[in-house]
Design brief:
mainly alpha; about 85% helix; about 0% strand
């Protein structure tokens, strides 16, 4: 996501809100202006980040 797209999203909701809504809601709310493919990629990035965090927490718990 480029700076313009990030600003367009974050002018409407906070980063916490963006991360809390479902991938489907992100697409519904922002794909009209930013493009469906861009929102799908953003959802993939968020999912990968969550997986890294989850994996790190699992390793630390062992």
């Amino acid at each position: 996501m480029n700076h313009f797209a990030a600003c367009a999203v974050l002018c409407q909701i906070t980063l916490d809100e963006l991360l809390e809504i479902s991938p489907e809601e992100r697409i519904a709310r922002f794909s009209l202006h930013l493009g469906h493919d861009r929102m799908v990629k953003l959802n993939e990035v968020i999912d990968r980040g969550r997986q890294v965090i989850d994996d790190g927490v699992s390793v630390m718990e062992e």
